[in-house]
Amino acid sequence: MQLREHAAHARGAPSGNRLERSYRQPAGRNQRLVLEELAAAEKPLKAYDLLARLRERGVNSPMTVYRALGHLIAAGRVKKIASANAFLATRHPASAVMICRICGFAVESPIAPGLFEQIFGDGASVDSASIEAFGSCGCDRAAGVPRAAE
Ligand SMILES: [Zn+2]
Asked: pLDDT: is 117 or 9 the higher one?
């Protein structure tokens, strides 16, 4: 699922994935600002990039950004992309993320229900997972070609 679709999905479309959680709304202004900025970016942002984008909206402290990120991660609204040391707005506790090495665009897709039972056996219960992949979203192809399947 592409992030643009993902944003529509996050606005309330129900999902059949049993790994989906019910998500709390961001509790405070700073969390809301951080989540809005990440959702608009459509790519992972480092904490200091977030801070630079949020200064004009009154967020001036790295600790404010890190605190908001911590709450949003705990609430399942933001995922840390460990290999990029950056953060991505998400709705899927179990997802695969492909990050374009050329333009930085991120495509997130929920991991198929039942995948972990297939891998680890019927008794397995995985409640959080992340797969990070890097490659090209297609932006390096001829002009006019969409970045990814839409
Ligand atoms: Zn790209």
From this structure: 117
Measured in angstroms, how far is the CA atom of residue 49 from the centroid of ligand 1?
A: 19
Quote the ligand 1 centre to 101 CA distance (angstroms): 7
- Tell how far the Cα of 126 is from the centroid of ligand 1, in angstroms: 31
Three-class SS string for the chain?
Answer: CEHHHHHHHHCCCCCCCCCCCCCCCCCCHHHHHHHHHHHHHCCCECHHHHHHHHHHHCCCCHHHHHHHHHHHHHCCCEEEEHHHCEEEECCCCEEEEEEECCCCCEEEEECCCCHHHHHHCCCCCCCCEEEEEEECCCCCCCCCCCCCCC
Say how many Å lie between the CA of residue 45 and the centre of ligand 1. Answer: 15
pTM value?
0.70
CATH tag for 3-10+24-135 (out of 1.10.10.10, 1.10.287.70, 3.30.360.10, 3.40.980.10): 1.10.10.10
